[in-house]
Amino acid sequence: MEKFLFVLTRGLEDPTRVTRTFQLAKVAKESGSEVTIFLTDDAVVLAKPGMTDHVKAPTGDEANAYFPYLVENKVPIFV
Question: To the nearest whole number, what is the mean pLDDT of the chain?
Answer without folding.
Answer: 96
